[in-house]
């Protein structure tokens, strides 16, 4: 080994040492909103893929991962480097391509699955909105667990986030042997290409919630982020089930097994955690359709329903019998609809809004720029959290 190191060129020795010690910054966000990438390792050629290289605005396609590859240059330190142009404040994704093979940044643990690939994440701050996406001063606990769906006869995965205030309340309760506080619950549903980790990874739901709480704009609450894919195959990760979902879309729309499973999930959460009577549900894209269906199955349970870039039709409207009921036992929820003007499903959102107006159902409609992208969905979540906290 010593002989091999002695005959190595100086540059190769240096990059080998750096690669082993991992003492270099792989991604740096500068004050001028440029981002520098560095890869140190034994390689002949390295490129970086990133959606920050795309010069257009929000996509009207299904995904906003319109990445472009840029070649990195080997510098005098033996590492590969590249710096972007100044880019807008947002959350961006990237990965490296080393010797023609895709590779994630080994020094960046902030990652997110998108369909069949994992991407690294970098946040360019500078705006009030992107400040919400940064790590908060206090963080709670993310539980990865499951609940049993008797309708499907399977166990489904769910990520449950308990805020820091919840843990403190439990400690006080344990010491004083009395209940200190109950917490509101928000159920967040992913879209047809997501999985139970989508909202906590790309959606930055935990950061958004905790930062809004720190700013006094939102109450501490429990986040419940379930897997709402078509029945997953044994041994297959749910984040790869886009094709399975599309092929079984008629089942998604008509069988409502997933919505019935979500009803069972609410019973599981209510019996396991200290929750208040304030329950909310929201979903993006096709997850919005499921959120509306679940709210119809539990008309007296959710105080508010968030529909982000919704794929909704008249079938998701609440029953007319409920809308016209004067019974005090029925307390209908309020719909919050958000849609981008260039979103491919924008017309669905506008039609659903008109139908709610005609039915005189309680609702708020917000139209924004942009399309069917996480950039919008993160903003919609922050707006929805502040709206329901004011109820």
Explain the overall architecture.
The chain has 391 residues and is of the alpha/beta class. It has two domains: 20-125, Immunoglobulins (Immunoglobulin-like, Sandwich); 141-389, Alpha/Beta hydrolase fold, catalytic domain (Rossmann fold). Helices cover 31% and strands 27% of the residues. The strands form three sheets. It has an eight-stranded mixed sheet with strand order 11-12-14-13-15-16-17-18, sandwiched between helices. Strands 3, 4, 7, 8, 9 and 10 form a six-stranded antiparallel sheet that branches. A hairpin with a 2-residue loop joins strand 7 (90-98) and strand 8. The longest helix is centred in the C-terminal third of the chain and has 16 residues, at 257-272.
